[in-house]
Amino acid sequence: MIAMMAFVKLARVSNLPTIWSNVIAAWVLAGGVSPSSLAVILVAMSSLYTGGMILNDVFDREIDARERPERPLPSGAVAPQMAIAAGGGFLFAGVLLLSRFGIESTIAAVALAGCILIYDAWHKGNPASPLVMGMCRALVYVGTALAAGSILSAPILGAALALLLYVVALTYLAKRNAAPIGLLIAAIALLDAAVAIGAGHPVAAAICVGCFGLTLALQRAVPGT
Questions:
Q1: CB 20 within 8 A of CB 137
Q2: How many CB atoms lie within 10 A of CB 177?
Q3: What is the rounded distance in angstroms from the CA atom of residue 200 to the CA atom of residue 179?
Q4: 157: closest CA among 136, 146, 170, 141?
Q5: Cβ atoms within 10 A of the Cβ of 39, count?
Q6: What pLDDT shows up at residue 20?
Q7: Backbone phi, then psi, for 200, in 5-degree steps?
Q8: At 1, is the pLDDT very low, low, confident or very high (cuts 50, 70, 90)?
Q9: Which residue has the higher pLDDT, 75 or 167?
Q10: H helices within 100-201, ranges in order?
Q11: What is the mean pLDDT of residues 44-53?
Q12: Where are the alpha helices (DSSP H) in 12-102?
């Protein structure tokens, strides 16, 4: 049970609902109609996110040992080898799941995994890291749309760009501890809700708003920063 909670903290699972809202908003923009395919994409993107969060701590473990020794890796709650295996496994699983939808979604999945690894390995001291993080979120939209069989239409690209810019600003503020970052992360789901409303899908928008509330609730137990 203790090991499981350590992994939950390592993966920052409290932010996962914002990934789900990303997928739902992109799905409705793409005109997706298959619930089973949507379920696979949700699992795939969740897996990519989880792998990225775990590997983020792997790369940061020496810094965390000095600045945040209570984190699962420096505290010894999770072994580095286990974290590397889990993080890599989640990334691979996410790419594998998206590859079932064709070559274009496979390329998007590989690009997303690549951006995740670039951010994880080189976000400290990298002035371009907010842009890389923004690209990670934008590629969730792109990958979802392509997996849904859609072309990258202007509405999809516009929404992906809006998300990118929001996350760039959020990441910039987070690096300077200049705002309530947990709240701003949760508000990603509200951006997705606006996208769904604009696409004429109030039910999807309501689900995205629910993801906002769920993120805030989960952050009380597992900080999402």
A1: no
A2: 8
A3: 32
A4: 141
A5: 10
A6: 98
A7: 80, 35
A8: low
A9: 167
A10: 103-121, 129-147, 154-175, 181-186, 188-198
A11: 96
A12: 16-30, 35-59, 61-67, 72-75, 80-99
CA 202, distance to chain mean position in Å, is 23
Considering the entire predicted model, what is its pTM?
Answer: 0.93
The one-letter amino acid at 43? V
Q: What does each C-alpha distance from 191 to 70, 111, 158, 180, 220 come to in angstroms?
A: 33, 23, 12, 17, 22
Report the distance separating Cα 150 and Cα 88, nearest Å: 29
Q: In sequence order, what are the residues at sequence separation of 6 or more whose Cβ sits closer than 8 angstroms to the Cβ of residue 140?
A: 19, 22, 23, 26, 45, 112, 163
Our measurement of the distance from residue 71's CA atom to the centroid of its chain's CA atoms, rounded to an integer in Å, reads 20
State CA 150 to chain mean position distance: 21
Q: Token pair of 28, please?
A: 């409705």
* Average pLDDT in the chain: 91
CA atoms within 13 A on the CB side of 110: 8
Q: Is the pLDDT of residue 65 over 90?
A: no
pLDDT at 78 > cutoff 60: yes
Cβ-based neighbour number of residue 200 at 10 Å? 9
